[in-house]
Amino acid sequence: MKKLGIVAHSAEGGALCFLTACRVGAERLGPHLHPEIVVSAIPMGLSMPGWESGNHAVVATHLARGVEEVAGAGADFFICPDNTAHLVLEEIAETLPIPGLHIARVVCRDISKQGWKRVGLLGTRWTMTGSVYATALEQHGLERLIPDDATRQFIDTAIFDELCQGRFLPSTVDRFVAAIEALAAQGAECVILGCTEIPLIVDDRNSPLPILDTTRLLARYGVAEALDGRPSPAGVGGWLEPPTL
């Protein structure tokens, strides 16, 4: 059994990923059991100046340190429960000491299994308009739909000012649901909750569309990778092919 490293970026998303991995482990292995997990939590606040200024080198320093910490604690591979962070992780993946599971590749595998073709995407402004999902979806022959400018701005602000700080306002929930309704009106068949905190306020009970919960999907695939028996390449970074669930 391989040891799983969780490289947290935001506290809320990291905590949800950790708890999910433990619970999925118990589903697979029995009560109170799960793969060994080590967690790094470099404060996201240290990276925010880099995000705001577009200086990915600042963000990369902290994300790389997180991966190095879990590798130093014996992790065989890592997952990072933060969609936006993958913009920078893609730039440095080959330089890291252990490989990772890429959150967008995991999500696209699940979309393809369901047969959906037109995909709504919510997340930070960098996730909605950036290359992480644009590239992954295109590689899988999937169409990406995102909200209008004003809605993107609201969602981005709510993520950082509320969700990442553990604030969950009913009015914000309503705005997120309305954003998904608008994506459905554009023809979206499902919606990626492309920020690891969105599943804290949107789920199958209130979403107008089937959801792709990126936080829990990544944790589930992380456990599958830990249990599948494939050895991780020693001393090299890059991205692992997602395991079969």
What this model shows, in words?
- This protein is an alpha/beta fold and 245 residues long.
- The protein folds into two domains: 4-102 and 216-227, 3-Layer(aba) Sandwich (Rossmann fold); 104-213, Rossmann fold (3-Layer(aba) Sandwich).
- 48% of the residues lie in helices and 12% in strands.
- The protein contains ten helices and eight strands.
- The chain has helices at residues 11-29, 48-53, 56-72, 86-92, 103-114, 125-129, 131-139, 149-161, 170-185, 214-227; strands at 4-8, 37-41, 77-79, 100-101, 118-122, 143-145, 190-193, 211-213.
- α1 (11-29) crosses α10 (214-227), α3 (56-72) packs across α4 and α5 crosses α10.
- 46% of the residues are buried.
Task: Give structural attributes.
245 residues; Rossmann fold; 2 domains
Brief sketch in words of this structure:
Helices cover 48% and strands 12% of the residues. The protein has 245 residues and is α/β, with parallel strands linked by helices. The strands form two sheets. A four-stranded parallel β-sheet has the order 2-1-3-4, sandwiched between helices. A four-stranded parallel β-sheet has the order 6-5-7-8, with helices on both faces.
